[in-house]
Amino acid sequence: MQTVLITGCSTGFGREIAVRFLAEGWRVVATMRDPSANTLPESEQLRVLPLDITEAASIQNAVAEAGAVDVLVNNAGIGWLNAVEGTSMDVVRRIFETNTFGVIAAMQAVLPGMRERRSGVIVNVSSSVTLKPLPLLSVYRASKAAVNALTEAAALELAPFGIRVAAVLPGAAPSTRFGTNARAQIAANGGFHQAYADFTQQTLARMQDAANGPVTTSEDVAEAVFQAATDPNTPRLLPAGADAVAWFEGR
Ligand SMILES: NC(=O)c1ccc[n+]([C@@H]2O[C@H](COP(=O)([O-])OP(=O)(O)OC[C@H]3O[C@@H](n4cnc5c(N)ncnc54)[C@H](OP(=O)(O)O)[C@@H]3O)[C@@H](O)[C@H]2O)c1
């Protein structure tokens, strides 16, 4: 039985990715900051472990507990919407610690075992906002564009060891807690920068419109992640969701 370790399984995409791998008969190590938040159905194939992607020791402990990991899914992440000058360096660091450095740290934790076994797959959950520049998404987009760049180059350096690396680029998914969490963080960190009020209104209106059109579901993302994990012909950057596919094709 193959083992997948997934980060950020308390909710949203991560939870759905865990459900998908369980349904496919995998052994699933579902990690989350607070395991008491677990809502996954009980299963003999399931192990729930604590993992905060910003804490090196937490990552190392979870990987050591997990045993041999065939697939790592770096899903944990946080959103943000604000002008560059409306984003304090503390917030910038928190975004990069979570969305970018956490991905690298988790890769570093599983790679020795994968290299030894000469097999493994790493799937990084990025974002379709990396495909198209939009105002106020500068910092979040930079944190995810770095994940794309990392993925593409790491795929080359790890291929000789039989290890594949791919990034899944989801479109906008209003069904997860992502937007609500981001709005709470923006409010807790001084709100939107007033000098960019026009962009703020336009961007929020565009998001509202987009939510009424084709959006991305957690199932779309779980499908793309499962494909990336199991199909060696998966491209290194794979859009997930109708809106993301449209952006990808129009890029
Ligand atoms: N929803 C979208 O529109 C969208 C679009 C493109 C890409 N994405 C990306 O998709 C991924 C999943 O997002 P989602 O939509 O499922 O959002 P979500 O519902 O907010 O879930 C995010 C998950 O990440 C976890 N997390 C946050 N900080 C963490 C940390 N320091 N260590 C470990 N886990 C942490 C959260 O855990 P807690 O419960 O502990 O906070 C939660 O389980 C993220 O990487 C996000 O950037 C989302």
How would you portray this structure in words?
Helix 1 (12-23) links the parallel strand 1 (3-6) and strand 2 (27-32). The chain is an alpha/beta fold and 251 residues long. The protein has a seven-stranded parallel β-sheet, sandwiched between helices. The chain has eight helices and seven strands; from the N terminus they run βαββαβαβαβαααβα. The termini are far apart. Helix 1 crosses helix 7. It binds NADP nicotinamide-adenine-dinucleotide phosphate (NAP). Residues 7-8, 10-14, 32-34, 37, 51-54, 75-79, 98, 125, 127, 170, 172-173, 176-178, 181 line the site of NADP nicotinamide-adenine-dinucleotide phosphate.
Features:
251 residues, alpha/beta, Rossmann fold, seven-stranded parallel beta sheet, 8 helices, 48% helix, binds NADP nicotinamide-adenine-dinucleotide phosphate
